[in-house]
From TrEMBL:
Domain of life according to the entry: Eukaryota
Species whose genome carries this gene: Lactuca virosa
Keyword set includes Repeat: yes
Leucine-rich repeat-containing N-terminal plant-type domain mapped to chain residues: 30-68
Protein name in UniProt: Leucine-rich repeat-containing N-terminal plant-type domain-containing protein
Length: 979
């Protein structure tokens, strides 16, 4: 009985314990369900990953949930790449048995909850590739069982916590692609089991800690794209398990340390640092090394004799250093696995690297940017697996080998920037995989072979800057995949083939600087993807086809320097235009206002056409416009005020038109304005002082208008001005002294105005003046400033046709750069500086008393002056004597006439008394005769010439001093004329 009792009691106890335990476990499972449903409420779930999360189903069947083996506890949650957004709930800390939490690759925001540090069993925490911000919680050092911590590719900031070194079980630490700063904590060296350390693409600085050698199990160390500095610590050479070492794109300096112990290293990348010295030979002997990238450093040394014993090497990248010598002789053998070789941008020289021809495995060869020369060998055909051949920017010469057509796997061929001659071999048409063919900047000639159009995969062709002749192949339309076609700067002629329109993927068409002619065909309208159209400097003619208006993707149009005519309307069909250049054609009519629909237009050049009408006010909508050139057309009216909205304009050119009105003061609001040319129009009024606010102005041309008033003082604010042209206006007043502040002027033209006053001596401070200083044809007075001698770079000086006086300063002789000088038509005097003797005499003519070569010498000038004075004195004496003698003779003649008149009077009186009888005897009437001839009534006696002359009866023409014996005159008048 007693034994039965004991057995029954024991059984009851066991049943009780089992039931208690079951209830406890059920309660625990119920708690996890409660917290998970609460956590779910903080997520936004567009993909329905939580569709089966509900209290009516077993928690262990929920999506992403992993339970313990006894199905009682949640030990894992994997919601990676589920499209979730929202924040991470602190309630995850309630899942006490959680070992793995993976919320990676979602759109979660907010902070990493510090409460996660309460998950004492947590082994893996994966939060990478979200939008989390803030810091790494300091409490994470409590996660003693943590083996994997990957929280990179977020917006996390701050420093890497030093206490991370307390996570002694950590195997993987992924902190890449964040914004961490500070340095790599030395405590990293305490992580004895760490295998992967991912720190790339942050803002980490400082040095690589020497303590890194404590991570003896480290296999992957990546800290590229940071700001690490100093040398590469030799401690890294002790990480014998290392397989990947990536320190690219930092500012590491010094030499490469000894890495000979890294026998398992497969990937080594030191690209983009400041490393110097030579490559340690032992690196090239690392037995497992597959990828070596030491490019973009300052490494040097002769690599010709480098011994590459490693047969596993697949990629060698040594570009952009200062290596010298030829190509390594032992780089490649027939058993080599070498697939990629990049040694561009060094100082290597010699012939084409023949050792490479043994590398049948080679796929990419880039030896560009060196000094390799001579011909490309025909044996290049041995590289049967070659997909990319980059030989550009070397000194290769000769012609392309025909065998290049045997590289059947070739995709990209870069040969530009050499001295290759000859024709394109027709065998190139065999390259059915060829996609990119760049031959530009060579000296190739001949026709473009029609066989090239058999390369149906071609997407890019660039033959710029050669001597190709003939026509563009008529079958070019076969290149259905062509995206980029550049044939500019050759000698191609003829029409553009109609078939070009069938290259419907074409985005860039550049045919400028050739001899192409004819009109464009309607098939241009098929090029619906065309973005860039460049046909400049050819002989195209005729109107544009209307189908061009169908090209809705055009962004750049340059058809300048042709013979196109008609309207420009077909070119404004695109609303995406950025650059628009039709310079030097024969386009006519108005500018279509639709051009302004391209709101992103930055450049409009329509100069040298036959366009007319007014400047469209719609241009004021182009807020990004920086270059507007409407020069040499027939535009009328005023500059529209709406253009004041184009605040980014840097070049405003409207010269040689018929524009009227005032120069707009709002031009002063263009802070970017560098060139303003309003010349040869009909602008009036004054030059607005607001122009002085254009602080970046380099060229100001307002010449040949009708401007009046003075030059505003504010012109001196243009301290960067290079060219100032104000000639041929009606400007007046004094030249402002503030011009001396324009220290960078190298051309100054103020001629043909009405400037007065003296030449400002401040002009002598413009020491950069070189092209010309022209102040001619004004009203300038005073002396030539001595300060002009400082203009030692000046090539032309014109001060003619003013009122300058005084001497030519001797110091001006220092202007040895002058090759044109004109000081004529002033009031200058004195010696001409001896260094000016090389100029013609016309440079000094019409002055008061300038002397010296090229004019007469000053000594001769003085002698001539004295002689002139002597001759003048003598002439004065002669004149005085003649004048005195004439007066005496006239006085004597006057006395004789008086005496004769009195005698005559007395005779007449006697005759009146006796009726023609004298002394009782009758007499005949007396007549005045000359040479036995009576004096006629229409003659008179010339006292000056002592002869008879015809005498007019007009009082206006008769001189009473010379014509005194007119028979018709009364005696009374005769007497009066002699008094």
């Amino acid at each position: 009985m007693g034994g039965v009792t004991i057995t029954t009691t024991t059984t009851n106890t066991l049943i009780f314990l089992f039931v208690f335990l079951q209830l406890s476990l059920t309660k625990a499972s119920s708690n996890d369900s409660f917290w998970l449903l609460k956590i779910q409420s903080q997520f936004i779930d567009p993909m329905g990953v939580f569709s089966n999360w509900n209290s009516s189903s077993n928690i262990c069947t929920w999506n992403g949930v992993k339970c313990s083996q006894d199905q009682t506890r949640v030990v894992g949650i994997n919601l990676s790449n589920s499209g979730l957004s929202g924040t991470i709930s602190p309630d995850f800390s309630r899942l006490f048995s959680l070992q793995k939490l993976d919320l990676s690759v979602n759109s979660l925001t907010g902070l990493i909850p510090r409460e996660l540090s309460e998950l004492q069993d947590l082994q893996e925490l994966l939060l990478f590739s979200n939008y989390l911000s803030g810091y790494i919680p300091n409490e994470f050092n409590l996660l003693k069982k943590l083996q994997v911590l990957r929280i990179g590719d977020n917006l996390l900031t701050g420093e890497i916590i030093k206490s991370i070194g307390e996570l002694s079980e950590l195997r993987v630490l992924g902190l890449a692609y964040c914004q961490f700063n500070g340095s790599i904590p030395s405590q990293i060296g305490n992580l004895k089991h760490l295998k992967s350390l991912q720190l790339q693409t942050n803002n980490l600085g400082g040095k690589i800690p020497e303590e890194i050698n404590g991570c003896q199990e480290l296999e992957d160390f990546a800290a590229s794209n940071n700001k690490l500095e100093g040398g590469i610590t030799s401690s890294i050479g002790q990480l014998r398990s290392l397989k990947i070492l990536n320190l690219a794109n930092n500012t590491l300096s010094g030499s490469i340390p000894d890495l000979s112990n890294l026998s398992t290293l497969k990937y080594l990348n030191f690209h983009g640092n400041r490393l110097t010295g030579e490559i340690p030979p032992e690196i090239l002997r690392l037995p497992e090394l597959q990828n070596l990238d030491l490019s973009s450093n300052n490494l040097s040394g002769n690599i010709t004799r480098f011994d590459f014993e490693n047969g596993n090497l697949e990629a060698l990248v040594l570009s952009s250093n200062s290596f010298t010598g030829g190509f390594p002789d032992k780089l490649c053998s027939r058993e080599s696995n070498l697939r990629h070789v990049f040694i561009s941008g060094n100082r290597l020289s010699g012939d084409f690297p023949f050792p490479l021809l043994n590398c049948s495995s080679l796929e990419v060869l880039d030896i560009s940017g060196n000094n390799f020369g001579n011909e490309i060998p025909s044996e290049v055909e041995n590289l049967k697996n070659l997909t990319d051949l980059l030989l550009n920017n070397n000194s290769f010469s000769g012609s392309l080998p025909h065998e290049i057509g045997n590289l059947s796997n070739l995709v990209n061929l870069y040969l530009f920037g050499n001295m290759i001659t000859g024709e394109i071999p027709i065998e190139i048409g065999k390259l059915q995989k060829l996609s990119v063919l760049y031959l530009y900047d060579n000296q190739m000639s001949g026709n473009i072979p029609i066989e090239l159009t058999n390369c149906s995969m071609l997407s890019e062709i660039d033959f710029f800057g050669n001597h190709f002749t003939g026509q563009i192949p008529g079958t070019i339309g076969k290149l259905k995949n062509l995206v980029f076609l550049q044939l500019r700067q050759n000698d191609l002629w003829g029409r553009v083939p109609l078939s070009l329109g069938y290259c419907r993927k074409l985005q860039t068409l550049s045919l400028g600087d050739n001899k192409l002619s004819g009109s464009l065909s309607n098939t241009f309208g098929y090029l619906s993807e065309l973005s860039l159209l460049s046909l400049y400097n050819n002989s195209f003619e005729g109107p544009l086809p209307e189908t061009i208006s169908l090209l809705k993707n055009l962004t750049i149009v340059n058809i300048s320097h042709n013979r196109f005519s008609g309207s420009i309307s077909p070119l404004v069909g695109s609303d995406l235009l950025l650059l628009f250049d039709l310079t030097n054609n024969s386009f006519s009519g108005f500018i279509p206002s639709e051009l302004a629909r391209s709101k992103n237009l930055t450049r409009i050049r329509l100069a040298h056409n036959l366009l007319n009408g007014t400047i469209p006010m719609e241009f004021g909508q182009l807020s990004d416009l920086n270059f507007l050139d409407l020069s040499s057309n027939s535009f009328t009216g005023e500059i529209p005020p709406e253009l004041s909205n184009c605040k980014k304009i840097s070049h405003f050119l409207v010269s040689n038109n018929q524009l009227t009105g005032l120069v707009p003061p709002w031009l002063g609001t263009f802070e970017e304005l560098g060139e303003l040319d309003l010349s040869s129009n009909d602008f009036n009024g004054t030059l607005p002082k607001e122009v002085g606010m254009c602080s970046r102005l380099l060229k100001l041309s307002v010449d040949q208008n009708r401007l009046s008033g003075g030059i505003p003082e504010e012109i001196g604010n243009l301290t960067g001005l290079n060219v100032l042209k104000l000639q041929r206006n009606n400007l007046s007043g004094e030249i402002p002294r503030t011009l001396g502040e324009c220290k960078k002027l190298f051309e100054l033209r103020l001629s043909e105005n009405s400037f007065s006053g003296s030449i400002p001596p401040e002009l002598g401070t413009l020491t950069e003046l070189q092209v010309i200083l022209d102040l001619s044809n004004n009203l300038l007075m005073g002396e030539i400033p001595v300060s002009l001698a400082n203009l030692v770079k000046l090539e032309r000086l014109n001060l003619s046709f003013n009122k300058l006086h005084g001497q030519v300063p001797e110091s001006l002789g220092r202007l040895t750069s002058l090759h044109a000088l004109n000081l004529s038509n002033n009031h200058l005097q004195g010696d001409i500086p001896s260094t000016f003797s090389r100029f013609p005499s016309s440079s000094f003519m019409a002055n008061d008393n300038l002397c010296g070569p090229p004019l007469i010498s000053c000594a001769e000038s003085k002698r001539q002056q004295k002689k002139q004075l002597s001759n003048t004195a003598a002439a004065g004496i002669v004149v005085a004597i003649v004048f005195t003698a004439t007066l005496i003779c006239l006085y004597l003649l006057y006395l004789m006439l008086r005496i004769w008149c009195k005698w005559k009077q007395a005779s007449i009186s006697n005759a009146d008394n006796r009726g023609g009888v004298i002394d009782g005897m009758p007499v005949k009437e007396e007549k005045w005769v000359y040479e036995d001839r009576p004096i006629r009534s229409n003659e008179c006696w010339d006292l000056n010439k002592m002869t008879l002359l015809p005498c007019s009866h007009s009082k206006k023409d008769v001189s009473m001093a010379s014509c005194i014996f007119q028979d018709s005159m009364s005696r009374e008048n005769s007497m009066r004329s002699l008094v």
